[in-house]
Amino acid sequence: MFILKNSSSISQIARLRSPKFRQTGSNCTLSFWYYNYGQSVGAAELQLLVDGLKQPTVLWRTYYNEGSRWLKAVIQLGRLPHPFQFSLDKISLGFYEGVSAIDDIRFENCALPPPALSCEDPNHFWCRDTKACIDSLLVCDLVDNCGDGSDEENCNPDLQCNFENGLCNWEQDVEDDFDWIRIQGPTPTVTTGPLKDHTTGTARGHYLYLESSEPRKFRDKAVLLSPLFNPSGNGTCVFRFHYHMFGKEVYKLSVLQRTMSNTKGWLLWYKFGNQGNRWIRQTLHISGSRPFQILVKGTIGDGFTGDIGLDDMSFLGCTLYRGNLPTISTTTSGTSVPATLPMNNCTEKEFVCRASGRCIQMIQKCDFRPDCSDKSDESACVMEICDFEDKDLCGWHQPALEQMSGNYSTHIINTFRWQLGRGANLYPEQEQHCPLTDHTTCTEEGWYLFADSSNGEFGHTADIATPVISLTGPRCKILFWNHMNGSTIGSLEVLCKTGNRTSKLWTQSGSQGPQWNRAEVFLGIRSNFQVIFRAKRGVSYMGDVAVDDITFEDCSPLLISGKPCTSEEFTCANKYCIPKNNLCDFVNDCADNSDESPSI
After folding, report:
1. Does the 559-599 domain belong in CATH 2.60.40.790?
2. Is 307 exposed, middle or buried, given 0-12, 13-18 or 19+ CB atoms closer than 10 A?
3. Are 352 and 200 in contact (CB under 8 A)?
4. Residue 547: is its pLDDT beyond 60?
5. Digit-coded pLDDT (tens) for 288-326
6. Distance CA 115, CA 126 (A)
7. Residue 94: which pLDDT band, with cuts at 50, 70 and 90?
8. Which fold has domain 157-316?
9. What confidence score (pLDDT) does residue 475 get?
10. Over the range 280-303, which residues count as b (16 or more CB within 10 Å of their CB) and which as e?
11. Helices then strands, each counted (H, E), the chain
């Protein structure tokens, strides 16, 4: 069908109306082919007219000459429970020169799910009236998948939000760059963002979106915080949401999980770039052994055609946590001391074992040997072995970030820093210079620690340090695996800090190839010190430094047994016993050098 001009009036509208339709299923789409060619061919738009709603909803628009060719338009309708029809309007202002035509109109997946004779699968739900058998993950997701509303009955409103009446129990993060905006209808900028919400499929419904126009800058972030949830084992807690990422400069949407209130969490899922003019459903299975919170983070691209939308966010199989998440300590030791201690007679220079109240010397705290029955003297210390697989930093912390924590949005977000990563979460541009697999599991799902060079500038450094280690033994060493690949890789150093004095123990610079490399650093006997991994950024983002499987080996200090040394042992001047094989080996095994004395 094409348009023929039959009047000389200044403003003309050619209108084509569809028949009326009763309803559609949740996966319904409309497609057609259109032709819009000519110097003054004018604009056209498709409107949705729903019974009972005065305001039409714009579903599709074309503004200008699109060449002498047929183009396909695909429009997401979704679940429309009320009678409706379409109006295709062609507008000409004064002078019309061109050809506008439409052909091959098609509806797909618009029927409700068919009835079933039975629905015994435990992973499915049997609809009350329509008798359809639907996936149980579609229950209480704010979408009438059954067609009779039975899958949305008896749902906990605290676990759902369609943004029709505000943010529900979600909150805007106060430590990001800007906020998500609640809106109806299309976003202000054409050729980006949704035209309608997902809940109602009309301009009447509300949703959240990120405005990418000025004053926003590239990589500005807006974070939405969920309520708190109780621990969820084996992924029984499910998070469902719908997102819209349309525009040639759309950048990134990500979902994170955290168990500490002053951390940014670890990445569960992300999507990068233009995904088309449609709402897309995403389902995430959430696991965790501690109370947690979900963060939804949108990141602005390099331009104003980068709006991102969110709607119909719901949880299934989750329970709300009524407490507060703990905060990670920013003290050097890595954790704070509980406010109440057991009854004890310890002095200020002694450590109190948390379970028994026993007193031990402070030098016995964080020495890689548990002296308390509950191991509380080693609980606020660096872990002996760390593979990062539980997404825990194992006691390692970043002093520089802790000092800047009061100005999170301005500094920490764009700072060259260490963070947890894995191959499954890499962005397309990271795959050439960041590990695709970790060293522990050799899979994309395994975690490692890396310094992200997409932040910061040439020469910037990122430090990650242990809490203070009280004492180590004579054969103590650090084993770790490092990954340094990329055309502009910087350097990695291992440092020892004692008081205000810092010394370099190991260094490596430049690209070392696309594989994990083993490194070993000797520590020996040291007291009251910290180990620091320092990454130095190269001239560009093409080179990330990563480490994995950090192990402190043979680091427990010598222990006086109280018994005489055996015939196979040497008695040190300080009464320690060491193997005779360790004599005169250029290592201070006794801690007083008596095993290296020329008089032996």
Report:
1. no
2. buried
3. no
4. yes
5. 888 999 999 999 988 888 899 999 999 999 999 999 998
6. 9
7. low
8. Jelly Rolls (2.60.120)
9. 85
10. ebeebebebeebbbbbbbbbbbeb
11. 1, 35
CB 37 within 8 A of CB 98: yes
Residues 6+ apart with CB under 8 A from 477: 520, 521, 522, 523, 552, 553, 554, 555
φ, ψ (nearest 5 deg) of residue 55: -85, 125
| CA distance readout (Å), 138 to 82, 128, 146, 316, 471 | 21, 14, 9, 9, 56
Give 47's pLDDT tier (boundaries 50, 70, 90).
very high
Please name the residues in contact with 200: beta carbons below 8 A apart, sequence gap of 6 or more.
none
Span 382-400+415-553 CATH architecture: Sandwich (2.60)
Residues in the chain: 600
Q: φ and ψ at 50, to 5 degrees?
A: -105, 135
For 152-207, what is each residue's pLDDT tens digit? 999 999 999 999 999 999 999 998 999 999 999 999 988 899 999 999 999 999 99
Across the beta sheet with 84-93, what order do the strands follow? 11-17, 84-93, 43-50, 57-62
Average pLDDT, the chain: 87
Domain boundaries, the chain: 11-108, 157-316, 348-378, 382-400+415-553, 559-599
- CA 106-90-279 angle, to 5 degrees, is 50
Q: Is there a contact between 36 and 85 (Cβ–Cβ < 8 Å)? A: no
Q: Is 9 exposed, middle or buried (0-12, 13-18, 19+ CB in 10 A)?
A: exposed
User: Among 55-69, 90-104, 457-471, which is the least confidently predicted range?
Assistant: 90-104
Contact 482, 535 (CB under 8 A): no
In a 13 Å sphere around the CA of 270, the CA atoms on its Cβ side amount to 20
What Cα–Cα distance (Å) separates residue 118 from each residue in 127, 137, 145, 243, 457? 10, 18, 17, 33, 62
- C-alpha 382/C-alpha 466 separation (Å) is 6
Separation in Å, CA 53 to CA 15, 26, 205, 210, 484: 19, 20, 11, 27, 60
Residues 6+ apart with CB under 8 A from 465: 396, 397, 398, 399, 497, 530, 531, 532, 533
- 315 contacts 159 by C-beta, under 8 angstroms: yes
Whose structure tokens read 């979900």? Answer: 294
**Phi, psi dihedral angles at 430 (to 5 degrees):** -90, -15
pLDDT at residue 406 greater than cutoff 60:
no
CB count within 10 Å of CB 406 equals 10
Secondary structure class of 411 (helix, strand, coil): helix
Q: What is the DSSP letter of 416?
A: -
Q: Among residues 71, 81, 97, 86, which one has the least CA distance to residue 16?
A: 86
- Domains 157-316 and 559-599 fall in the same CATH topology: no
Closest C-alpha to 429, from 445, 448, 452, 450: 452
CATH of the domain spanning 11-108: 2.60.120.200
Which amino acid, residue 345? N
Alpha helices in 290-362 (DSSP H): none
Q: What is the pLDDT of residue 60?
A: 94
In the numeric block, the tokens 């979460």 are attached to 425
**Consecutive H or E run containing 403:** helix 399-403
